[in-house]
Design goal:
single chain, 675 residues, 9-stranded mixed beta sheet, 15 helices, 40 strands, 33% strand
């Protein structure tokens, strides 16, 4: 019987496992890096041990340190979570050899299935359908192909290659990314199927020879080969196809004598044929959708099977309704999924029915690794939280989840929230016409929810009114005088913000009763910021009549042509975050007299995000062409290329491999090529 469990992981998955442990009476041990010292999961554990350093290679990928933490705290079992060492056979062997219980399949089974190359060979012999693949990239004789990391998952180390010329660089890049994420640089090539769907089957097997399936999940909505939306059941799977998929998944498990919770992943082609992709010998990120439609706690079942228990049911319980999960990530979809870092100022999801556990009734579940005050850095994955809806039907689940996401207040970081809402409301998704390439074909889902000019203007006005109301509330004298009231009616109250589309001036004038007499929002030329905000009445916008119903430092209620609109305003430092039924807007107040900044010389290339310099491929004096790869940055387990924007000659390189850089740091300077 497990008494004290160490979770060899971090963030959301650690909190998820701790939640079940509390419910069943198992004590918990957390491990944390220096960067995670203040993370929520650390405080929720009964015991916690620091792993010095922040990089995964120095902390969560160090099996010796994890095992030492287990010994130090008296843990008698280890749960690997997912990612890091979850599918590392050597680590599993270390745990069992130390006399501890490993919550997962044996190291032998992990070793067999950890390599996608070996797994495909084994299962092809068992007559499970597989796609053609090449272990030596030099032997690839058809395109397109998908370069894949042989170890690990999560879309890391994957590249689509459509011609032989780009294969070499894709393989090299995939190898580096795979090594950074999993400690193994082995890759292979597999036939790439256009417009395919990603379907996976959840299995559970005990050591007494019983194996059952718990239905399928669809994971076709992906970016960079990483899942961002999952659902159960799949809208594409008929009863007959489900039976065939589940039979194939059982055949995979029985072929290797699998014991524990696992997932068998398949590719479903447009013609209805399916092919084995890989087996994940661990808990999946998307396991909550299966928990909600089956009512089972998969972590509890993992612990039960690790203790040698026999499956308490001969087959899966019937599915109950439909569940959809989205991954809320700190990244900017409109900027090629650029990761975002910083402090979370506010995180509120409305109408939450449950957290980290199965639920008794339909509703919204949240599994989150962050809370207000959390700091998101460059060392780990960009996922902030999983938000899951469970409803009687797929349409109801999509509508419920889209509504909850649209009303979620997440401040301090750029996220993919708006894209997720638009996908959930897109006709292609609602009709089930999806595949792994959907995002590439639907550019409209990349638009922000707050996209109309009028909605943006109203949000800017609300930010200015809330700031003024907050100042009046803190005034020592004459608080009753309306904010912005002037003896000289020609002078307006103005403020300048930096918004998504650049600087804007917000101006308004109140009459003697405190009512809104005039207001405007106008774009400001960045070169003329010193002329903005002087209180001069701008060119009045052509907008419907607006009246201020009420204004406080946190909420502004406007009457817009007879329709009331409530806007919530949250300020953190010089940032104002405005949320309403129309969408969300982040604004940074610009100072009236900004400090001088050093101008970058022409041709300067700066870091688009904080991270570590990976490779530097150029040197001063080297001639480069537009689009040439100059260097790479590594952040959030991914490699980010920096390309030459034009033909030129490298005049400066200011960084070296391994150097840590902040956003905007100078990386290199490109001089124009001589005519």
């Amino acid at each position: 019987m497990i008494r004290r469990l160490l979770v060899a992981n971090r963030g959301e998955v650690a909190r998820r496992i701790f939640a079940t442990c509390r419910a069943v009476g198992v004590e918990t041990v957390a491990v944390y890096s220096s960067a995670d010292a203040d993370a929520p999961y650390v405080a929720e554990a009964d015991y916690a041990v620091q792993l010095p350093g922040s990089a995964p290679s120095a902390t969560y990928l160090r099996g010796d340190l994890l095992l030492a933490a287990a010994r130090k705290t008296g843990a008698d079992a280890v749960h690997p979570g997912y990612g890091f060492l979850a599918e590392n056979a050597d680590f599993a062997a270390m745990v069992t050899e130390a006399g501890l219980t490993w919550v997962g399949p044996s190291s032998k089974i992990i070793s067999v299935m950890a390599s996608k190359i070996d797994a495909k060979l084994l299962l092809a012999e068992a007559e499970v359908p597989v796609l053609p693949s090449w272990t030596d990239p030099l032997t690839v004789d058809e395109f397109p192909v998908l370069v894949k990391a042989a170890i690990g998952g999560g879309g890391r180390g994957m590249r689509i290659v459509r011609d032989a010329d780009s294969l070499g660089e894709a393989v090299s890049s995939a190898r580096r990314e795979a090594f950074g994420a999993f400690g193994d640089s082995t890759v292979f090539c597999e036939r790439y199927v256009e417009q395919a769907r990603h379907i996976e089957v959840q299995i559970a097997a005990d050591e007494h020879g019983n194996t059952i399936t718990l239905g399928e999940r669809e994971c076709s909505i992906q970016r960079r080969h990483q899942k961002i939306l999952e659902e159960a059941p799949s809208p594409a799977v008929s009863p007959e196809l489900r039976e065939n998929l589940c039979a194939a998944a059982v055949a995979v498990a029985e072929a290797i004598g699998y014991v524990g919770i696992g997932t068998v992943e398949f590719l479903l082609s447009p013609d209805g044929e399916f092919y084995f992709l890989e087996m994940n010998t661990r808990l999946q990120v998307e396991h909550p959708v299966t928990e909600l439609v089956t009512g089972l706690d998969l972590v509890r079942l993992q612990l039960f099977l690790a203790e040698g228990g026999q499956l308490p049911f001969p087959s899966a319980p019937p599915m109950r309704g439909h569940a959809i999960e989205v991954r809320l990530c700190a990244e900017d979809p409109a900027s090629n999924w650029l990761p975002a870092t910083g402090q979370v100022h506010l995180f509120e999801v409305p109408e939450v029915s449950g957290r980290f556990r199965p639920m008794l009734q339909p509703g919204i579940r949240v599994d989150s690794g962050i809370e207000a005050g959390s700091v998101v850095g460059v060392h780990y994955d960009s996922m902030l939280a999983k938000i899951i809806a469970w409803a009687p039907t797929r349409y109801e689940a999509a509508r419920m989840l889209a509504g909850a996401l649209a009303r979620t207040r997440i401040h301090g970081l750029v996220t993919n929230r708006d894209l997720l809402v638009r996908v959930l409301r897109h006709p292609a998704f609602l009709t089930g016409q999806i595949d792994t390439g959907l995002l590439d074909r639907q550019p409209e889902v990349f638009a922000p929810l707050l996209s109309s000019v009028e909605a943006v203007r109203l949000s800017c006005l609300a930010a200015a009114l809330a700031a003024a109301a907050d100042r009046r509330a803190g005034a020592c004298l004459q608080r009753g005088i309306p904010s912005g009231w002037r003896n000289v009616p020609s002078v307006a109250q103005t403020v300048v913000y930096d918004g998504p589309a650049g600087p804007v001036e917000v101006g308004y004038r109140l009459d003697g009763t405190g009512a809104l007499a005039q207001w405007w929002v106008r774009a400001v030329d960045p070169e003329e910021l010193d002329l903005a905000g002087l209180g001069q009445v701008g060119v009045l916008d052509d907008h419907p009549p607006v009246a201020v119903v009420s204004a406080t430092g946190t909420e502004v209620v406007l009457d817009v042509a007879g329709i009331r609109l409530a806007l919530q305003v949250h300020r953190a430092g010089d940032m104002s975050y405005v949320d309403s039924a129309e969408g969300s807007l982040a604004l940074r107040r610009l100072p009236r007299f900004p400090l001088p900044v050093q101008e970058l010389e022409e041709g300067a290339l700066t870091a688009p995000l904080p991270g570590a310099v990976g490779r530097v491929l150029v040197a001063p004096g080297q001639r480069v062409g537009a689009g040439d790869l100059l260097l790479t940055l590594e952040a959030m387990k991914l490699e980010h290329p920096v390309h030459a924007p034009a033909d030129g000659i490298v005049s400066q390189v200011t960084v070296r491999p391994g150097a840590l850089v902040a956003t905007g740091a100078l990386l290199a300077v490109l001089a124009p090529a001589p005519a």
